[in-house]
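Project standup — Tuesday

K.O.: blocked on the structure for the chain from last sprint. Re-posting the sequence here as requested.
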Amino acid sequence: MGRKPTVSFAPFRQKMQRAGLDDLLIRSFEHYYAQLGAGATGYIPGACALPPADLADRSTANGFHADGLDALDRLVVVKLNGGLGATMGLQGPRSLLKVKDGLRFLDIIVRHVLHLRQKKTARLPLIFMNSYSTQEATQQALAAYPQLAKGDAGALPLAFLQNKVPKIWQDTLQPVEWHQDPKKEWCPPGHGDIYLTLHTSSLLSQMLDLGYEYMFVSNADNLGATVDTDILGFFAGRNLPFLMEVTARTAADRKGGHLAQGPDGRLLLREIAQCPPEEVAQFQDIDRYRLFNTNNLWIHLPSLQKLLNERDGFLDLAMIVNNRLVDPSRPDSPPVFQLETAVGLAISAFDGAQAIQVPRDRFLPVKRCNDLLALRSDAYRLDQQQCIGLDPRRGTGPFPAGAPLVELDDRFYQFIEQIQERYPHGPPSLLRCRRFAVTGPYTFGASVTIEGDVSLSNDSDTPIAIPDDAVLSG
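H.V.: unblocked you, prediction finished:
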């Protein structure tokens, strides 16, 4: 895809300097902007993204429990927390959405880490990487947990702020000026920005000075991403520089970033935005590309520092070109490019990086209200270790195995306020449910039970009321 020739990077440099942004960030953005102007798409063709060879399985980590316990006191937990829940109608961080027993993502994450600290007598600092959109609200929420900052773990901050970069007009390749809302002139550069931010903020050096050796990075909206001591032991015991957790793709994951292997044998991550349009069908073939990235990543901090020092603080991750509107809330607003990188793309940067296949319960993201309804239901429970998981009865006797598949009509169930309106008494029981699909408007009474495979369809615009205590089965 051709681009119009760039006139000069100077307007971007001036804009970023006026905003007080770090010179290394400006230089890295210039690097990617030059690629864009030269016509680069960020595409990785299938010929360069082959299905990977056999990988280690989670069961392999069982023999490394002692190594994990030994390494736990040298582990830092980082949660990627830059995302707003705009697609679900939220105005703030998705991590502040209530998901289980009246608790938010953030509450459950914090309680799990505090539980491990007490049980394992480990320092285990917890740090949130925020965007400009989530920083203030997250810091206010963390203030409710003063114990997080106590002891040796308190030497590190509870949060740090990732960078921002200019949006780019698609027609001129010049910096966006949007006087209606100047904040929309900027965007986060993707969570791959974590490496540059750790370097420029000196936070990485601070971690190493305090004796931390390992970092576990995961998405704040994935409550399956708990600290698994056995996987930590496998990572530490094998002396790996980088380890990605991957899991089996299903039809629901066809658009997610998949694991692949380059012709040189290195593992790589390919996001759908990096797939040539003519190869999308191949990208979504879950039999060819069987594994996808959970974004649960284990990183050896000395190896990361060595790599950053060798590359002047810049890992040169593969570029992702996202086509967006300058104001996502206005479908008629002009198109822009947003240049991003993803944290998992670093698997290609480390010599000796590996991946490990984990069970599906390590990946419980909430991107849509479908996911939220399932997680809030009785099909999942919060245990004493503050870990979310499927009710152990599922897969035994009359209870179906695996997670219930929930498919809701986006016209009526896309936003949180719609879920609250349609399910005023909370989610139905999904403990015995295999699949629950709803098309058209319904309102659900209290104590509704869904069993087996149930599909509801209402072709009218008038909601159908499901009465209290109803049992729907199929």
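K.O.: great, moving the ticket to review. The longest helix spans residues 105-120. The CA atoms of residues 130 and 161 lie 5 Å apart.
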